[in-house]
Structure formats: C-alpha cells, structure tokens
Design brief:
The complex is a heterodimer of chains A (1015) and B (432).
Chain A (H helix, E strand, L loop, with lengths): L16 E10 L2 E7 L3 H7 L4 E4 L6 E3 L11 E5 L4 E6 L9 E5 L13 H4 L8 H4 L8 H11 L15 E13 L3 H13 L3 E4 L16 E2 L2 E2 H14 L3 E4 L2 E7 L3 E7 L14 E13 L3 E3 L12 E3 H11 L6 E6 L3 H11 L3 E7 L7 H8 L4 E3 L1 E7 L6 E8 L4 E2 L4 E4 L2 E5 L2 E3 L2 H5 L4 E4 L4 E4 L6 E3 L9 H22 L34 H4 L4 E3 L4 E2 H9 L5 H8 L12 H12 L3 H4 L11 E2 H5 L16 H6 L3 E5 L2 E6 L7 H14 L1 E5 L4 E6 L3 H8 L12 E7 L5 E11 L2 E6 L4 H15 L6 E4 L4 E7 L3 H8 L15 E6 L2 E6 L8 E7 L3 H12 L4 E3 L2 H10 L48 E8 L11 E2 L13 E9 L4 E9 L8 E4 L8 E6 L9 H4 L1
Parallel strand pairs in A: 1-7, 8-9, 8-15, 9-12, 15-29, 17-25, 18-19, 18-25, 19-20, 35-45
Antiparallel strand pairs in A: 1-2, 3-4, 5-6, 5-7, 10-11, 13-14, 14-15, 16-26, 21-22, 22-23, 22-24, 27-28, 30-31, 33-34, 35-41, 36-39, 36-40, 37-38, 38-39, 41-44, 42-43, 43-44, 46-49, 46-51, 47-48, 48-49, 50-51
Chain B lengths: L21 H9 L20 E4 L3 H12 L6 E4 L15 E2 L6 H14 L2 H5 L10 E5 L2 H16 L5 E3 L1 H7 L15 E5 L3 E2 L2 H14 L3 E3 L4 E7 L2 E7 L2 E4 L3 E3 L5 H7 L7 E10 L9 E4 L4 E5 L5 E7 L12 H13 L7 E12 L6 E4 L5 E5 L9 H14 L13 H4 L5 H5 L4
Parallel strand pairs in B: 1-2, 1-12, 2-8, 4-14, 12-19
Antiparallel strand pairs in B: 3-7, 4-6, 5-6, 9-10, 10-11, 13-16, 13-17, 14-15, 15-16, 18-19
Helix pairs in contact in B: 2-7, 2-10, 3-10
The chains are: A alpha+beta (1015), B alpha/beta (432).
C-alpha cells in the first residue's frame, strides 16, 4: 500500500474512481489522488490537515468542513498566467497538473512569522484598531501600511492580463429546485412527471446531497445509493428537466429572478476553445423550491480551532464519499444524535473511537443503543473543555459539564487523540429565503432558525426548512411538490396534477433531533478560556471578543458583527453566525428569538467577478458606432474622437501636418471654398401624428405650430428647471409630420425624455416618435462654393438650387440617390445638409468629394467644425451649457416665444434667480496676445493676485485659434458677463505660468450680420 | 467660496480615565479586558430635551456631538429607529474628497475634509481616515475638457488637485490598464491627494461615544411616529418609547426624510432610490489609490482588510427597499475589469444596497423649515458619507443659532422656489 495514501480506507462505493489516479501539487510538493476527490479529501488522504493560517492571529488551521461552509482551508490555485486566491479546498475538484498553494503565511505554512500575533493576541482584542494608532496623528498612514500588508488573504498573479471566457445565459422555467438531496430529488421527480419545465441545480458535482454521505439503509427496498442513481437518471432523461450540477444558486431577487453560477470547464483545469470557464445563469422561475439542506454547527470551547478538529458530518463525508479516514484515534463531542453516525462510520472504517462526549445528561435513541452495543464509551453530561496541540490536536480535557450553569462540575479527564469530531446541531441553509426578505422563526425543538414559509413564490423544504428526519423530509417534500404543482397548473393548463405520487419508505436507524443547545463551553477562568474559544474561525473572532463587544455596548447583532467581524469572512458566517448569536443572547440574558439575526446578503457563496462581467468586456463593454462614411475617413488618414458611443472624424492630417496645421487648413478652406463634414451622427427623430405641431410647441421654447411645410426651424429644448437641454433643427415634412434633429450625444436622452412626456404627462396627444438616426447618412456641405458643388452633383432638377432659401428643405436626387436636402448652417457659411438613406452614405460622400474637387472641396472634422461655429458664436449644447444655463444666459432670449401659453421650462424661467444680473452669461474673449490660446476649462478672475480662495467670474467653455481672424478666440460663461463687455479679465494657469490677459467681447467674432450664411 | 474658521470644540474627553490609547489597551490587557466601559450608555428617553436629533447615523451623531461640544447644548437625545449607523453610514463605499467644482459644494466638502483631518484625535477614536488619494479618470477628449474645468475651479478655491497623464497614472497605480485601444481608454485623470477613505462604522461609533461623554442620550430601537406642534412651533415628538418634549428637532434620516417631513405636512423635493455596492474577497494589497470613472460609471478602492470595494450609479427607479437590480453590479464589474483586468480572478463576496435621498439639483438640504424649531439635514444623495463631520458641524450651528452660517446658507429649502440651485448633476458625474 502506498505509504502516502495511508488514510485511504478500503472502498465502499464512494464517489471517487480508484482506476483514475490524479497528480497534483500543494505547497511545492507532489501528491496523488483519485478522480472525484476534492483537494481537501485528497490532502486528508495523505494525512494533511494543516492547510492555512488564520486572518488575524495567523493560527494554524486545518480542513474543517466538507463543502461551501469551509472557513479555514482556503488556498490559491496557480495557473500559467493567472491565480485564483481564497478558493475552498473542500470545493476544488482535483485534476491532473493542479497546483495549489496555502495562503497568508510567510515564509511557510509551518513557520509563519506573523504567528507572533498569536503570542500577543491579548493586546489585539476586538476593536483594538479603534482605540489606538492615533498618536502621533501623522503616523496613521504608516501604521495603516503595515496593517494593510498583514491583512488580505490570497495574492493575485501579477502576470495576469487577459480575462478568461465567461458566458451569460438567460432562461425561464416553471419550477426551480435548489439542491439535490432527498428533498430536492423528491420534489424534482414529482414536478418532472407533471410536465412542468423544471430546473434543478446543485453546487456539488454530483446529485444526492447528504444521501451521498449517509446511505447505509434502503429506500423503497433498494439501497439508498441506488435510489439516488435511479432518480437522477429519470430526471436527466426527462425532456422537461434541466439538471445542473456544479451550479451554485447565489442570489434570489424580486419576482424569483435568480442568479446561478455554473462551473462548466473550471474543474477540468484546461481551457476549452468552445466552452466557457463558467456560465452565469439569469433565470426567472415561476416558483422556487429551496431544498438547500443544512450545515452543522461547531461547538465553541477553548482550542477548538486546532487542525484535526472537524465538523462531525464532514468526517463522515470524507469516510463515506472519499474513502478517507481523517484520523485513527478519534473523540466525538456532541450535543445531539447525529455525531453517533460519525462514530459508527469511524468505527466501521477501522478507526478507534475513544469516546463520545455528549453534553446531554441522559441521551437515548435507537442509534445510541446501537453505538453502545459495539462498545464505544459514551460520556454523557460531559464536555470537552479544552483541546491541546501545537499544529494538530494531541489531547483534550474532558469534564462533567452543567450546560445550564455553564460550568464544569468534576475534575478533568485528559485524553489523547488525533481527531475530534464536533457537532452542535444543524442550521438550515436559509440564505436564499432571507435574500428575498423572508422572515425566520426560532425553532425551540431543533434549536435553529428556520424559514417562516409564508411566500407564495418560493418555499423551503426538508432540512432547509428545519425538518431533519428523513421520513418526514420525504413526506414534506411530496406534499410541497404537489401543492406547488397545483399552483403552477392554475396558470398553465399543460401541467398535469393527477400523477400518482408515493412517499418513499425508508429503514434507517431512528435518531433524536433535539440537540442540547450549549453555545459556549466555559471552563477554568472564562476570560482566559474564552480567548481561544473560536466562533468565526477565518476572522479569528472568539467568545471573548463577543463578550467584550457586549461589555462595550456594541450589543445589537449588527454591532457585534461589525465590531468583532464575526460572520464577515469569505464563508459569510455559515458556521459562526448562530453560535455568535447564541453567545450574545446569553450575555444579554435574552432569548435567541429576541436577539435577532444579521442580514443574509447575497451571494450565497462568492461569485467570480469574471462571470458577473461575462462577455461584456473589452470591445463588447459598450458598442462603438461608426458612420457609413467611416472607411473613407479612415483611408484618408482621419484621426477620430469618441463622442458618446460614436467615433467621429476629428481632423484629417496630411503628410507631416500637426493637429493645429490640419485644423487651420480645414477651417480656412471651408470659409474660402467649401468643406464637407460627416454629420450622420446627429440624432434624428421622426415626429408623426395629428398633434405633432402642438407637441413640438410644448417641448421647444419657440413656436413650431406655424412652421410651413418644407421649412426648417432651429429650436431650443429646456428641462423643467428652465435649463437648456438640447437643440437642433426641426423641419416640417407634412401637416402631421416633422423631422427633428438633436445633438449627437443627446440623441438617446432626448428620445427618452420626449417618450416620458408622451407616456406619462400628455396621454391626450396623438404623437408617435421613431428614432431614425441610423436610417440616414448626412453630409454637410458648407462654404462659398457649396451651391455650385450641389448643382453639379444633382442628377435632375438642377435648377432647384437657384431658388433654395435659407432654412428650407427640398427633395431631389444626387448621383441617382434620393436625398432630402436642408439649407441650414452651423458654420455661418452657405451650407446644405444632404440626407440620404443610410446605405448610400459612402456613395454620396465619394461622389461629393469627386465632383467637389474642382471647387476645392475639403473634408473637415469635428475640430474644424468647432472652430467654425465658435467664430460665429454658435453654442454647442454640452460645451457652452452644463444643465445650469438658461437661454437668457446665452443671450438667446429671442428664441423664447412670448405668444405661447406654455412650454417645458417656462414656469421655471420666471423664478427670482433667473433675472439675477450676476448669473453666468455667454461672452466672447479676445486674448491680449493673439497667438495665446486659453486652455478650455480655465477660469477668469478680475484680480489675479488675490488670496485663495479666489473670486471666480466663470469658466472658458470653448477656446481655439481662428485662422480666419488670425487671432485666438474663446467663449466663456462669466458672472454678469453681458454687462462686462470691454472689461479685462485674467485667466490663472495651473502650471504656475503668468495669467493670460483677455478682453470681454461679443461672442460673434465673424460675419456679425450673417450675410454669408444667407448669401 | 465661503470659508469658516474651524471650531473643533474643547469640551470632549476631559476625563482621562475614559480615553483610549495604547496604554489603555495594555492596562486592560493586564485585566483580561474585563474592565472596559461602555462606549456609550444605552439610554432611555427622558421627558424633556433642549433638542432632539432624529436619526443615529453619522450625520445625526455628529450634529449632537458638535451641539454639545461647541454650542454647550448637552441636554440632547439622538433617537434611532434601529441600531446606530445602520443606514447609509454603514452601507457606503467610504470615499472622502472635497474636489467639487461649484463654490457652494467645495465650501462644505472642504469644511468637512478639514474636520476629517484630526477627527480621530478629536473623538479619541480611530476612524482610520486614510488620505490615500482619490483619482478620477477621463476617457475622452470631452471628459478631459470637463476635467480641466473642474481642476481649475478647485485649485482657485485653494483645494488641492493635480492633473495626471496616463503614464503618471500608471506609475501611481501599476495595476491599471492604460492600453489606448480599450473601449474607454485612460486619457488622463486628476487626483486629490488629501482625499481618501475612512472606516464607516467607526465614524458612527466614535461620534456616539464622544457625544455620550458630553451627556448626550443615545436612544436606539426607538422609532419616531409623529411630530407634535403648537401652532407653528414644534413642541415634541411621539416615539415608540413615549412622548418626548422638546422645542428643537433636527431630522437627519437619509432614506426616509420625506416620511418624517410628511409628519409635519412638509413636502420635500426628494426622491429615494437604491444605491448599490459590492466587495470582493480580501486579497493582499494591490490598489492603494481610490479610482473613480464617470464615463463608465464605476469607482473602486481596496479596504484595509483587503477587500476590493466597488460602487456605481443609482438604480433608475424609486424604492425604499434596501436592494437594487442586478444590472448595476453587472455593469460596474464589467467596467472595472476593463480598467483592472486582474479583477476577473476575484470573487464577489457581498452585494448590498442603501436608499439615497436625492434632490433635483443633486445637492443636499441643510435648512430651517416653515415650522419653527424643525430643521432638516437631508438629500445628500450618493455622497453623504464624506460630508459627515462638516454636515454635523454646520447643522449643529443652524440648530443652536436658528440661522444658517455662510456654508449652510446656499443649501436652504427656499432655493427650490427661487431657483438658486447648486446643480451637481453635470458637475459631479458619478457622485459618492
């Protein structure tokens, strides 16, 4: 026999495959295990208990549980270019080549320097941080650095750069069954027969739950294991059932929206080109049955955290599922019957059970009689009052114990051992129930919190409901499954309710499920023993810490949790919360029901952030929108800028040109010849319906009702607070049909806002909105030569350009493409915005550029557009406005209709503050030095030499070099600006340079009369 | 920007025996920590108080502390429905900064930041205020311009703020991804070095202990069920522990301000929405600076315990339930992974929500009301924690003197009638 596998016992039909040897590494040492092993079972098979160090005192800690409740055995898995910290060894399935490492120790697990904390732990009681590190005040950052270094658990890989593949999946079902133990399988199989769409999920890799551990009996006259096998086979072959193993239901939200994390290839240890590492399910279930089982409670006594001290149920699990006996000289410490099954299992596996220490004075039941018969010594009315050992349990102190008085009542018995099983009763897994804000009730008989089961949408069953006897679990599961199906059938007539349902019969030894609740074993001087009586193993909080919290007044359950950090570790208190509440209740002389519970926050077990993000990362995080002309811009060397989701051509540098040179050239060419801008990104909304004109009248400040067909008008939209929200040109296409344009960045917001108004405020208006932003490609042709170019491009009706007044629209064909041509301008030049069906965008653009060549047509980008409009003093919403600017502030009072009875924002504009002369108002600035361009965002002051904080007039919203004026120009919003024209201001610089001097002027720098525009 | 000389008060912790220090820990260790005293008394309400503060969160407790410590009004009760600090004080992502653009906001948050500096010593309770710096990232040309505007304004207000280039950001935060080809590339950022984080629970506990020492009664598990008044003067409050007579009531009940206001027939311009946060499992230090990004709507820091703390914007619906929708964490995690790919290896440990009261202009209300003796401090939206000391300080001043000081003045309720709003929507982006 392999010496290293000496803890493996002969096979009794466990979940491992003895034919398949698996090689893995832990802390640089090579080991073997079998397929089906967890890292924990494989290590225990080699006699390894010590796998980690605790968070605060760095005490040696061993494998403690066998599933998601594990607080101690956290390891780091190391891949080529990644590492995943803080994984529970009890849940990692081993695979060939797995490399794991212990955490939170330096230099090694056996010799850990920071275990010095354990020696001085007397000086680190709960909350000690709050009481010290305050002197000298300036040293906190130094102290904190040390604290941060000591804190944290695992490490991440620095080489890591590329997230692995995770997927999301959406699904619906009639019934979700969470958990595949006796209760889960029984409900699922009944539901399967009804024809309902069923999903059954279990976090373990195999269905069966506790029936995988406890199966030494018959169900319906066949071995329990065979019953599980048959039932699972039937579920898997049912077409209406989805069976998900390795799937943790982590969150349950309103209306049974459920998040589940499925480990698809993670347990295989190798990447699969086609499959994700994990799949995150977003499931909507009509009903949910929670068959999530229960978790055993530890007992709290001095030294209870030593490696070799394990949950009784976990020891049994390792024996029955993995053929692993965790220790050969065992002592059992319990307050209930369940641990007697562990005693039997150890005995059967060839281990020596020295004694069972039972807190109950006179325990009686079928199973106890059986245990007594085989000669195991039972010390009733006793307690283990302390455990001793260096890095592993070596001996225990046992004494008679009075649970009521919380004190030992006899002399101490010393007994050596290398394994201690402890069992303090069971806690139903109520997390998902609590996440839905379901209430909990304290059950005195079984000493546990169980769900109130008052919801119509979900129900708990079996151990999750505080029902621990297997016979009763089957009866309850059958009943609950039937009533749930009746409810589902009411909503869906395809679901059958008349299937013959039988309750499985079992022949299992009877046990007594009433534990003797003893939350804390006190012995000797409690203030000494409490200090090593651990409640939360991972966070190192002890009975003494809880008592201290109460002494200091932190006595609500939430304060205890936060002051001592009990229940805040990565296991979220699965084994510690109820013990902590029990100790707290006895400190406060209250019942547990009066003491209350802390909030169970999602998720049930930690969920991979990679899985939460799924594939919505990298380029898929947010779509990039490109216009139909994009490839032309690209092949002509354009530089792009992000505007919202859009990529817009920013400028087109030619050989060797700088940014400024390119922009200057584009601006100059547009003013002197002609320029072409890709304006496809502007928001476009079709407004249709008999009340469209009235609708526009209400949302714009100016009048649209009287707009003739074929005419366009510039409009300003305000929010209810009177502040400028968006602007654009709207054209009337027919009596009941308008074509609205919005800013590029504001398009989605405007549409939502208009829909909100129509759907919630103005239900009487018959108006329909359709976003057509992506249905039209738009080229804006601008400059003195624009009319000639347009005429030359026309396929027919070339004469329409002769009589094409400003702010009108005509339909025609350009190069055979149907087009809507708008004579509107954002540059101050004569300009035409040519709209064609989107798919012709590239063709239109190329045609215009080709024909325009002889007219010196130049493509210009958004930067040149900004300069051109700034020369004219035209605003850009979002640049000259920020949600605090009114039309009056922009000196655009002319656009506010006096005739209309109302429009959005009208009332707000009448408030006192709106006429405040010191409001920030739009002005132009000319720098004293014509070549000096003010940084945008800089602020103007009257006196640059004043003390901080300075009195600021306002900020520079736009600032450029104007090649047409050969002068730096800027727009600014300054306090009382309209009355300050002619004044000199100073703009202080961040980099310590001299403030820039500038004069306040009118914001229209070029063609003040607008002659070129109308030309 | 309004600026006040900061009066920190002089009355707290005159009794040396109660002070916390390394010596007190050593001394108590010798007696096995059996002799520690209660951090605050668990008081039952008296029949009469000079002032009552409704709400035992950070702001309420700070108000009581400064009323007692600066204004000498010690016959005060703080009434809390549940447990101290159980609302947004115990639910936020603990970011503290004062780099606000508008003068009014900068004034109150800088006032708060100055009080944070030295708060542990003032309270003799380590609130772990850690000035690790808050870095706000810009991802587009447009954002860079917005950043420039903010930094100029902040600097001229005399508050520290520095612009960083992508390579300077990389040097400061080695784990950040500055690849220019990602969807929202890091194009620059600005940092407030004096900004940082604090231990949220400790703030409530520290103020509670210090206020208690000055004689303030802290009454937990006591719900206010009604306000009583005589004509236009407040005369007391009805609670689940009986009637309490008082002529001054300060309401600091984030998440439920509208409900208390309703008891006085006052309608506040407030909507209540969920705000969510998550933490990861703890890991060894990997991120020292607090990172915020408005464009992708995410902020992230690493706590002293080692957990990565992530937050995002508010849920888009009104609710009093302290949970939110799944879309929010999903978006914030995706955004964070683009900037910090290492996060993909980590796991979400807890997810939770709080209720934030938000005003139309996203700025708070610190105000008298039309009812004499009834004051409100609310509407801090997503950013209340950082203001805690400043908020309590100016609110105490308002209650004591029945007039707002220059810092509190702009935040009066009347602004919603006059239109003198302090619109932080555009200016702050993601605020918290």
């Amino acid at each position: 026999m392999n010496r290293l596998l000496s803890h493996r016992i002969s096979s009794n039909g466990a979940v491992i495959d003895r034919q398949k040897l698996v090689h893995f590494e832990f802390d640089q040492k090579k080991y073997t295990g079998y397929e089906g092993d967890t890292l924990a079972s494989a290590l225990l098979a080699h006699g390894i208990h010590l796998v980690g160090r605790s968070f605060k005192y760095h005490r040696p800690r061993g494998i403690f549980g066998s599933g998601s409740e594990e607080p101690n055995a956290l390891v780091r898995l190391i891949g080529d270019k990644s590492s995943e910290p803080n994984l529970r060894a009890t849940q990692i399935e081993i695979y060939d080549g797995l490399i794991a490492e212990s955490q939170n120790r330096f230099p090694s697990l056996k010799i850990d320097f920071l275990s010095i904390n354990n020696v001085f732990r007397r000086f680190f009681p709960a909350g000690f941080y709050y009481k010290t590190f305050m002197w000298p005040a300036s040293f906190w950052m130094f102290y904190e650095k040390l604290i941060r270094k000591a804190a944290g658990l695992g490490k991440l890989s620095k080489k890591y750069h590329r997230p692995e593949r995770y997927e999301h999946k959406y699904a619906h079902c009639d019934l979700l069954v969470v958990g595949s133990g006796a209760a889960g399988l029984q409900t699922a199989i009944i539901a399967a027969k009804s024809g309902a769409r069923v999903v059954i999920a279990d976090e373990q890799h195999r269905f069966g739950g506790w029936l995988l551990t406890d199966n030494d009996f018959n169900i319906n006259q066949i071995p329990a294991a065979s019953w599980v096998h048959e039932t699972v086979k039937n579920l898997q072959s049912a077409p209406n059932v989805t069976c998900l193993s390795r799937t943790t239901v982590s969150s349950m939200m309103d209306d049974n929206f459920v998040i589940m994390a499925e480990r698809v290839t993670e347990h295989l240890g190798k990447k699969d080109m086609l499959l994700p590492k994990q799949r995150l399910w977003k499931l909507r279930a009509s009903k949910v049955i929670l068959a999530t089982g229960a978790i055993e409670r530890p007992l709290v006594f001095s030294g209870n955290d030593l490696p070799g001290i394990m949950l009784s149920s976990a020891i049994r699990t390792y024996i029955n599922r993995y053929d692993v006996l965790s220790g050969r000289r065992a002592i059992i410490f319990t307050n209930n019957d369940d641990a007697y099954f562990t005693a039997l299992a150890i005995h059967k596996a060839g281990g020596f059970v020295r004694c069972i220490v039972d807190l109950r004075v006179n325990p009686k039941s079928q199973i106890i009689t059986k245990v007594r018969k085989i000669g195991i010594n039972i010390l009733a009315g006793h307690a283990v009052i302390a455990a001793h050992g260096l890095r592993h349990i070596a001996s225990v102190d046992i004494a008679k114990y009075n649970s009521g008085k919380q004190a030992p009542t006899s002399s101490i018995l010393h007994m050596d051992c290398n394994l201690l099983a402890m069992s303090g009763g069971l806690n139903p897994v109520v997390h998902l129930h609590s996440q839905r804000k379901g209430k909990l009730v304290w059950d005195e008989r079984t000493s546990c919190y169980r769900p109130d089961n008052k919801s119509d949408e979900w129900v708990s069953v079996g151990a999750a409901n505080g029902t621990f006897e297997l016979e009763r679990i089957f009866i309850e599961a059958t009943k609950i499954a039937s009533t749930t199906i009746m409810k589902l059938a009411k909503e869906n007539n395809k679901i059958k309710t008349k299937e013959l349902v039988t309750v499985p019969q079992i022949d299992k030894d009877k046990q007594n499920w009433t534990p003797l609740p003893t939350w804390l074993i006190q012995a000797g001087q409690p203030h000494v023993s409490d200090k090593t009586a651990f409640v939360d193993f991972q966070n190192d909080s002890t009975a003494a810490d809880i008592k201290l919290a109460v002494k200091e007044g932190y006595s609500s359950v939430e304060h205890v949790k936060r002051y001592t950090t009990t229940g805040m570790a990565t296991d979220q208190g699965k084994t510690s919360n109820i013990n902590a509440i029990g100790i707290l209740a006895s400190c406060l002389n209250k019942s547990i029901a009066e003491t209350g519970v802390t909030t169970f926050r999602p998720p049930y077990t930690p969920v991979s952030l990679g899985a939460i993000a799924g594939r919505n990362i990298g380029g898929l995080f947010d779509p990039v929108r490109k216009t139909r002309m994009h490839s032309w811009h690209q092949s002509n060397g354009a530089k792009f800028e992000h505007v919202g989701q859009w990529m817009r051509a920013w400028y087109y540098p030619r050989d060797g040109e700088s940014f400024q040179q390119a922009v200057n050239r584009e601006v100059y060419a547009t003013r002197h010849y002609a320029g072409l801008l890709d304006a496809s990104t502007l928001g476009k909304i079709e407004v249709k319906g008999p009340d469209s004109a009235e609708f526009l009248n209400r949302v714009y400040t100016n009048n649209f009702a009287d707009l003739p067909i074929g005419k366009a008008r510039y409009g300003l939209m305000l929010k209810e607070d009177g502040m400028v929200f968006d602007d654009g040109v709207t054209t009337r296409l027919a009596e009941d049909h308008f074509y609205m344009t919005t800013t590029t960045g504001g398009a989605a917001g405007v549409l939502s806002w208009l829909e909100e108004l129509l759907q919630t405020e103005w239900l009487d208006l018959r108006v329909y909105l359709t976003s057509v932003t992506e249905q039209w490609s738009v080229a804006s042709l601008s400059g003195p030569n624009s009319r000639s170019i347009l005429t030359a491009c026309m396929s027919e009706n070339k004469n329409i350009t002769d009589d094409f007044p400003f702010m009108t629209m005509k339909k025609s064909f350009i190069a055979g493409i149907p087009a809507r041509i708008f004579r509107i301008s954002f540059t101050g030049e004569m300009a035409f915005e040519i709209n064609v069906p989107a798919r012709y965008g590239a063709a239109l653009w190329s045609h215009l550029m080709k024909i325009g060549k002889e007219f010196n047509l130049t493509a210009y980008g958004t930067e040149a557009m900004h300069v051109l409009r700034a020369e004219k003093g035209f605003i850009i919403v979002g640049q000259e406005t920020d949600g605090t600017v009114t039309p009056h502030d922009l000196d655009m009072g002319w656009i506010i209709s006096n005739k209309k009875s109302d429009f959005i924002g009208k009332r707000a504009l009448e408030r006192k503050s709106m006429n405040e002369p010191q409001r920030k108002q739009l002005v132009g600035l000319l720098t004293a030095d014509p070549s000096k361009v003010i940084p945008e965002g800089a602020h103007a002051v009257l006196d640059p030499n004043q003390e901080m904080p300075m009195e600021m007039l306002g900020h520079i919203s736009s600032s450029y070099y104007s090649p047409n004026l050969k002068h730096s120009i800027a727009l600014a919003l300054l306090k009382g600006g309209l009355n300050r024209k002619g004044q000199t201001v100073y703009i202080p610089m961040l980099d310590g340079q001299q403030p820039i001097e500038a004069k306040i002027v009118d914001p229209v720098f070029f063609d003040k009369k607008g002659e070129r525009l109308r030309g | 920007m309004a600026k006040l000389n900061i009066d920190r008060g002089t009355r707290a912790f005159t009794r040396k025996s109660k002070r916390y220090s390394i010596f007190s820990i050593a001394k108590n260790a010798a007696s096995y920590h059996q002799k520690w005293q209660q951090a605050w008394r668990h008081a039952e309400p008296k029949s009469t108080y000079d002032a009552v503060i409704i709400g035992g969160g950070g702001h309420g407790l700070a108000t009581a502390y400064y009323l007692a410590n600066i204004h000498g009004i010690t016959n005060i009760a703080v009434i809390e429905k549940g447990w101290l600090g159980g609302g947004n004080t115990g639910r936020n992502t603990t970011i503290i900064r004062s780099n606000y653009m508008w003068d009014e906001s900068a004034a109150i948050y800088e006032h708060a930041l100055k009080l944070w500096e030295g708060l542990s010593q003032d309270l003799n309770f380590n609130v772990m205020f850690s000035q690790r710096g808050v870095l706000t990232i810009s991802h587009s040309e447009h954002e860079l311009k917005g950043m420039s505007r903010r930094v100029h304004a902040i600097r001229l207000n005399g508050i520290d703020s520095d612009i960083l280039s992508p390579s300077e950001i990389k040097k400061l935060v080695p784990t950040i991804n500055i690849d220019p080809n990602i969807r929202y590339p890091v194009m620059g950022g600005f940092i407030q070095k004096r900004a940082g984080t604090a231990r949220h629970d400790a703030v409530a506990w520290g103020y509670a202990r210090a206020a208690d020492e000055l004689g303030v009664d802290i009454i937990q598990n006591c719900e206010v069920t009604g306000l009583r008044r005589n004509g236009n003067q407040i005369t007391g409050i009805q609670t689940t522990k009986g009637f309490v007579k008082t002529s001054k009531v300060g309401c600091v009940v984030a998440g439920h301000s509208s409900i208390i206001a309703d008891m006085a027939n006052i309608r506040l311009p407030i909507t209540s929405r969920p705000l969510q946060a998550i933490v990861s499992e703890p890991i060894k230090p990997i991120l020292d600076t607090v990172i915020m990004s408005n464009a992708v709507h995410m902020y992230i820091s690493q706590s002293d315990k080692g957990e990565m703390v992530l937050g995002a914007g508010v849920d888009k619906y009104n609710s009093y339930a302290q949970t939110g929708s799944w879309t929010i964490p999903e978006h914030m995690v995706a955004a964070a992974i683009d900037l910090f790919p290492f996060l993909s290896q980590l796991r979400m440990l807890r997810q939770w929500g709080g209720i934030v009261d938000t005003c139309p202009d996203a700025s708070p209300i610190i105000s008298k009301t039309d009812v004499k003796g009834l004051y409100f401090n609310c509407g801090w939206g997503t950013g209340g924690f950082k203001a805690t000391p400043g908020s309590g300080h100016v609110f105490a001043d308002l209650i004591a003197n029945d007039r707002p000081n220059p810092i509190a003045l702009p935040f009066g309720l009347k602004r919603f009638e006059t239109g003198y709003l302090i619109d932080e929507h555009g200016a702050a982006g993601v605020a918290h």
